[in-house]
Automatic annotation (TrEMBL):
<feature type="domain" description="Nuclease SbcCD subunit D C-terminal">
    <location>
        <begin position="267"/>
        <end position="355"/>
    </location>
</feature>
<feature type="domain" description="Calcineurin-like phosphoesterase">
    <location>
        <begin position="1"/>
        <end position="218"/>
    </location>
</feature>
<dbReference type="Pfam" id="PF12320">
    <property type="entry name" value="SbcD_C"/>
</dbReference>
<comment type="subunit">
    <text>Heterodimer of SbcC and SbcD.</text>
</comment>
<comment type="function">
    <text>SbcCD cleaves DNA hairpin structures. These structures can inhibit DNA replication and are intermediates in certain DNA recombination reactions. The complex acts as a 3'-&gt;5' double strand exonuclease that can open hairpins. It also has a 5' single-strand endonuclease activity.</text>
</comment>
<dbReference type="GO" id="GO:0008408">
    <property type="term" value="F:3'-5' exonuclease activity"/>
</dbReference>
<keyword id="KW-0540">Nuclease</keyword>
<protein>
    <recommendedName>
        <fullName>Nuclease SbcCD subunit D</fullName>
    </recommendedName>
</protein>
<dbReference type="GO" id="GO:0006260">
    <property type="term" value="P:DNA replication"/>
</dbReference>
<dbReference type="GO" id="GO:0004519">
    <property type="term" value="F:endonuclease activity"/>
</dbReference>
<dbReference type="InterPro" id="IPR004593">
    <property type="entry name" value="SbcD"/>
</dbReference>
<keyword id="KW-0233">DNA recombination</keyword>
<dbReference type="InterPro" id="IPR026843">
    <property type="entry name" value="SbcD_C"/>
</dbReference>
<dbReference type="InterPro" id="IPR050535">
    <property type="entry name" value="DNA_Repair-Maintenance_Comp"/>
</dbReference>
<keyword id="KW-0269">Exonuclease</keyword>
<keyword id="KW-0255">Endonuclease</keyword>
<keyword id="KW-0378">Hydrolase</keyword>
Length: 387
């Protein structure tokens, strides 16, 4: 069976101040053409169809158009909700849409009820695990402590139990939206950290033939059977080195995986350039970036006059301007930024306690801080669901 694995469309999202709707429409057309031209048997979309819980009307219209075009091909499509989506909104009408071959899986309770498709070698069971917010689903899955690994492991236990009751030789595909250990994040994914721990081990997906992941925006292979497709378009300058693509995956009769990357059309290259204003205006080596979307970081010790306007004369598509003046290592601003770099909210809070009273929190106090952060996140998630 041949699958086309994609995710993280983020319909309705802009790139800085540039609307991406046109590029998103071009991607949908590319996806449909790929399905038709490459003999795809099923499409899997691993979450973050929309960029926010209440998407703009133009994004909803584009999604509607995508559903109609996929249904017209007669090729089944399985989709899950991601952490950016409203599961309830995305899942409206799922039962009716099923009849057209579009299978929306947005309810965690249905994670062990697969979409079963057949090819000449038998059944392939597709299990859709929508984004699982630990604080909201831990009771449903019977886990004692909210955490991504615990709830995802419980969901996968249900998947494996269902799979064990199916005919021998049934192959399996799991769609999940999560941060798996070994994946490389970018700046454009929304943080899903709970209790300071967001990543789950790839081994949680043991027992299935292919895990089609969403959430991280870079296309990457965690193992041969566990892959991220990445987003089809860039949504931050941290993705400047990404090759935007989808996975074309073949499952043979024994469930062995072969995969090919299918490049996606992108409207412009991204470029991150750095130096003093005069260096950026004069360096001939930067000529290759003059038609790109540009993020410029100025290192001038004193902020120059009208830098954006002057840079735009050479780089007409510049979108972002940052300032990082070169300073001595003992400068207070430099040392403070270094202290915070790469630290979680939990670690920063613990450092604050240590700074105020001269000793860090004990294990009980650490649990209190962790519970407070989890409660804030759960409250935010509940408010978003209720919107």
């Amino acid at each position: 069976m041949r699958l086309l694995h994609t995710s993280d469309w983020h319909l309705g999202r802009a790139f800085h101040r540039v609307s991406m709707l046109g590029a998103q429409a071009e991607f949908i057309a590319h996806l449909v053409a790929t399905v038709r031209e490459r003999g795809v048997d099923a499409v899997v979309v691993s979450g973050d169809v929309y960029d926010r819980a209440v998407p703009p009307l133009a994004a909803v219209e584009l999604f509607d158009d995508a559903l109609h075009r996929l249904a017209d091909l007669g090729v089944p499509t399985v989709m899950i909700s991601g952490n950016h989506d409203s599961a309830r909104r995305l899942g409206v009408g799922a039962g009716l849409i099923d009849r057209a071959g579009i299978h929306l899986r947005t309810d965690p309770a249905g994670c062990d009820t697969p979409v079963v498709l057949r090819d000449e070698f038998g059944d392939v069971a597709f299990y859709g695990l929508p984004y699982l917010e630990p604080a909201l689903v831990k009771d449903r899955f019977g886990v004692d402590r909210a955490g991504h690994e615990a709830v995802l492991a419980a969901a996968m236990d249900r998947v494996r139990a269902d799979l064990a009751g199916r005919p021998p030789g049934t192959r399996s595909v799991v769609l999940a939206h999560a941060f798996v250990t070994g994946g490389q994040p970018s700046d454009s994914e929304r943080d899903i950290t709970v209790g300071g721990v967001a990543a789950v081990p790839a081994g949680v997906f043991d027992g299935v033939d292919y895990a089609a992941l969403g959430h991280l925006h870079g296309c990457q292979t965690i193992t041969e059977r566990v892959r991220y497709s990445g987003s089809p378009l860039p949504y931050s300058f941290s993705e400047a080195e990404h090759r935007k693509s989808m996975w074309l995956v073949d499952l043979d009769a024994g469930g062995r995986v072969t995969a090919e990357r299918i490049d996606c059309p992108v409207p412009r290259a991204l470029a991150r350039i750095r130096g003093t204003l005069q260096e950026l205006l004069a360096d001939p080596g930067l000529a290759r970036h003059e038609d790109a979307w540009v993020e410029a970081t100025l290192t001038d010790a004193v902020r120059p006059a009208e830098p954006m306007a002057r840079l735009a004369e050479r780089f007409p598509h510049i979108l972002s301007l940052l300032f990082a003046p070169e300073r001595a290592p003992d400068d207070p601003d430099v040392s403070y930024a270094r202290r915070l770099a790469g630290r979680s909210d939990q670690q920063i809070a613990e450092d604050f306690v240590s700074h105020v009273r001269g000793a860090g929190p004990d294990p009980h106090e650490q649990d209190i801080l962790r519970a407070a952060f989890d409660a804030v996140r759960a409250d935010a998630a509940e408010r978003e669901v209720a919107r």
